[in-house]
Design a protein that fits this description.
The chain has 837 residues and is of the alpha/beta class. It is built from 24 helices and 27 strands. Strand 26 and strand 27 form a beta hairpin. Belongs to the G-protein coupled receptor 3 family. TAS1R subfamily.
Length: 837
């Protein structure tokens, strides 16, 4: 005999503690097909106490669980209701045999009893396909730890097991538990409902208390995992000590409870989530009351959310608001009256003989104790009771299908467990308005409810305030919560208050929920969906104010025609164009006069025509810059100006040569005149300027660029992209202006009609200083004022040449014609020669 067989045989010895029961009792009802039931009528939290004794635990020695007896009554009610109707299993009598499992202490013996034959034997064999155990299905037990133990046994026989309260998600593994189904949503949904409740009330700073058993550890870890992605932090987590059965609180347990409650009071968190069996909480809440702790929101797991014994501690109303997640309330017609009705004797099953019984099928005080909680059980609605009720009906519908029942009869053939299991997976019916079917993990996805504890006898002690729908994974709020706070305000439990829009979080400590809020600076914004701990910079073409959550496009700024500055400069340019045109007409009409020849003769028109073109290109500075307008500014305009400057420079040089160098270098001067030196000079410098301009265009591009306005960050200044090359682009003109100034200074003693020093000096000095000033200003400032000054200085330089150089000569031609004669000029030259001699 193998180790497994010896262990089973050893445990099977425990089955022979028998007594002869009555035909009908709370625990047993004869029938054609029996359902096994496992319920916790009493609670022994430390099952290891009995491991030193070769005896089955005596559950009646421990504290009674009112809810456990209520669930047992729900199974009795469902079976008897099915037997009393003709539409389901007609002609078939369902029976039941139920056992008190003392929470987790008494699981093995009842399972072996259910699996045994009527002769109490449990054979060891290789194939159980045609094995018929005592029961066709098992309902229960009520917790995940016991359910796991039972399921390992029942799965070997593929005996259907439907649990009504075990929520561990490990039970969804059909490879390990192929015959296990549930009529309650799993722990994943219970925890999700809690998390969504916290999010709804904006609680992100909580305390977690768990029991030291598998239930507390598993669900506590599940909540930790879920909160990690929901921006909810756990201030601290503590493990509650488990009480010894039927013993006073030990000094160590009392000290431990005192420390936990004191730590809760010292914490700024006011939301306390408890995952623990109900019996482990009695001593804890007594300590809470002893320390007179108030102001908390207690969130109960399904294990104690509707526990009437804890609710009976009415002083708890002063400790805060109690919320809990539990099964949906489905009123079962007639159950409240049935709960308090004692079992009635009835005839034995027609196909069965008197049966033996197993241990823990007695509860002398159950009805009396339950009677004292009758009101609260009735008002609270049938929550978990419906899970038991629907489990029994699921088995009945599967039997109905397996036995090929008609409206009047069923075949009453032998039912093998695996056959019934297949039919249970297929059930799909409506029970009290709710669809009953199992998903592929064996779960019945009934809705959950969030309830609030109330102590007003005229109200429901467990008022539903919200519903959670597992299929949608969505929590929907319903009834308003009555908060145990001043003015009924929602309690606040946040390590740090939410930051205002546009503020980033700076973490404090290890918890992401603890932080200080810092403003995002102008030019940055906060995108909370991407990163709520850092401000992001706006793109170059956008801007933001302090504490903005997004950037907005900057307003493009450029010179426009309606601006006062533009109008003034345009008027100056227009006057300059008209005056230059007038000067050209005057010079054309007096082209062969001495005054015009002394000014340069035909070369004057080489200056006047570019000046006119330069004035005509002033409108390219106004309006939205384009590639064409920028190209005109950067090339054609600067070429026109270079031609004018080079003509003035060569004119100054030529006058100095005539009066001061011709006598000393006659051959050089003769070559200068013979080969049209002035025109060669102008052409050479113009060609050089073309090379420089083309190089600038190729390197820097003529496309306009946008830059932030330093005076107003909301504005982008749209301008031509030639500022970096401005000094290099004007270097040749600056060199010519210095040369022209030098030659003019050298000719300051020439005859009055040829002495142009003061006019050229004025033009060249103004151009030199304005260009240097503009280049310096552009290097430190990039606002729209730069474009205005650029245009203004350009127009003033053009006016300086038009009026400063040509204006005096035109004035002499028009108002002093007697001085515009050959005789007058000859006298002036003769006088200059006599003075030099």
């Amino acid at each position: 005999m193998g180790p497994w067989a010896r262990a089973v045989c050893s445990l099977f010895i425990l089955l022979w503690v028998l007594a002869a029961p009555a035909e009908n009792s709370d625990f047993y009802l004869a029938g054609d097909y029996l359902l096994g039931g496992l319920f916790s009528l009493h609670a022994n939290m430390k099952g290891i106490v009995h491991l030193n004794f070769l005896q089955v635990p005596q559950c009646k020695e421990y504290e009674m669980k009112v809810l456990g007896y209520n669930l047992l009554q729900a199974m009795r009610f469902a079976v008897e209701e099915i037997n009393n109707q003709s539409s389901l299993l007609p002609g078939v009598l369902l029976g039941y045999e139920m056992v008190d499992v003392c929470y987790i202490s008494n699981n093995i013996q009842p399972v072996l009893y259910f699996l045994a034959r009527e002769d109490y034997s449990l054979p060891i064999q290789e194939d159980y396909s045609h094995y018929v155990p005592r029961v066709v299905a098992v309902i229960g037990p009520d917790n995940s730890e016991s359910t796991t133990i039972v399921a390992h046994f029942l799965s070997l026989f593929l005996l259907p097991q439907i649990t009504y309260s075990a929520i561990s998600d490990e039970l969804r593994d059909k490879n390990r538990f192929p015959s296990l189904l549930r009529t309650v949503p799993g722990a994943d949904h219970q925890v999700e409902a809690m998390v969504q409740l916290m999010l709804y009330f904006r609680w992100n700073w909580i305390i977690l208390l768990v029991s030291s058993d598998d239930y507390g550890c598993y669900n506590g870890q599940l909540l930790n995992t879920r909160l990690a992605t929901r921006d909810i932090c756990i201030a601290f987590q503590e493990t509650l000590p488990m009480p010894q059965p039927n013993q006073e609180v030990t000094p160590w347990e009392r000290q431990r409870l005192e420390a936990i409650v004191d730590k809760i009071q010292q914490s700024s968190a006011r939301i306390v989530v408890l995952f623990s069996p109900d019996l482990a909480l009695h001593n804890f809440f007594r300590e809470v009351l002893r320390q007179n702790f108030t102001g908390a929101v207690w969130i109960a797991s399904e294990s104690w959310a509707i526990d009437p014994v804890l609710h009976n501690l009415t002083e708890l109303r002063n400790t805060g608001t109690f919320l809990g997640v539990t099964a949906q309330s489905v009123p079962i017609p007639g159950f409240s009256e049935f709960r308090m009705r004692p079992p009635q004797a009835g005839p034995p099953a027609p196909t069965r003989t008197s049966l033996g019984a197993t241990c823990n099928q007695e509860c002398d005080s159950c009805q009396d104790t339950t009677a004292s909680f009758s009101t609260i059980l009735t008002l609270s609605g049938e929550r978990v009771a419906y899970s038991v009720y629907s489990a029994v009906y699921a088995v009945a519908h599967a039997l109905h299908s397996l036995l090929r029942c008609t409206r009047t009869t069923c075949s009453k053939e032998v039912v093998y467990p695996w056959q019934l299991l297949q039919e249970i997976w297929k059930v799909n019916f409506t029970l009290l308005g709710h669809k009953i079917f199992f998903d592929k993990q064996g779960d019945l996805l009934m809705s959950l409810e969030v309830i609030q504890w109330q102590w007003d006898l005229s109200q429901n002690p467990f008022l539903s305030i919200a519903s959670y729908y597992p299929a949608l994974r969505q929590l929907k709020m319903g009834h308003n919560v009555s908060w145990h706070t001043a003015n009924n305000t929602i309690p606040v439990s946040m390590c740090s208050k939410d930051c205002h829009p546009g503020q980033r979080k700076k973490p404090i400590g290890i918890h992401p929920c603890c932080f200080e809020c810092l403003d995002c600076l102008p030019g940055t914004f906060l995108n909370r969906t991407a990163d709520e701990f850092g401000c992001q910079s706006c793109p170059s073409h956008e801007w933001s104010h302090r504490n903005d959550t997004s950037c907005f496009k900057r307003r493009l700024a450029f010179l426009e025609w309606h601006e006062a500055s533009t109008i003034i400069v345009a008027m100056l340019s227009f006057l300059g164009f008209l005056s230059t045109l007038a000067i050209m007409v005057v010079f054309w009409r007096h082209l062969h006069t001495p005054m015009v020849r002394s000014a340069g003769g035909p070369m004057c028109f080489l200056m006047l025509v570019p000046l006119l073109l330069a004035y005509a290109m002033v409108p390219t500075y106004v309006g939205r810059p384009t590639f064409f307008t920028c190209l005109c500014r950067q090339t054609f305009f600067t070429l026109c100006f270079t031609i004018c400057i080079s003509c003035i420079t060569v004119r100054s040089f030529q006058i100095v040569c005539i009066f001061k160098m011709a006598r000393h270098l006659p051959r050089a001067y003769s070559s200068w005149v013979r080969y049209h030196g002035p025109y060669v000079f102008v052409a050479s410098f113009t060609a050089l300027k073309v090379v420089i301009t083309v190089g600038n265009v190729l390197v820097m591009s003529a496309n306009p660029t946008a830059r932030p306005d330093p005076d107003d960050p909301k504005i982008m200044v749209l301008s031509c992209n030639y500022r970096k090359a401005l000094l290099f682009n004007t270097s040749l003109d600056l060199l010519l202006s210095v040369a022209g100034f030098s030659f003019a200074y050298m000719g300051k003693e020439l005859p009055t009609n040829y002495n142009e020093a003061k006019f050229i000096t004025f033009c060249m000095t103004f151009y030199f200083t304005s260009s240097i000033s503009l280049c310096t200003f552009m290097s430190v400032y990039e606002g729209v004022l730069v474009t205005i000054l650029d245009l203004l200085f350009t127009v003033l330089n053009l006016l300086g040449i038009s009026l400063g150089y040509f204006g005096p000569k035109c004035y002499m031609v028009l108002f002093y014609p007697e001085r515009n004669t050959q005789v007058y000029f000859s006298n002036m030259i003769q006088g200059y020669t006599m003075r030099k001699d």
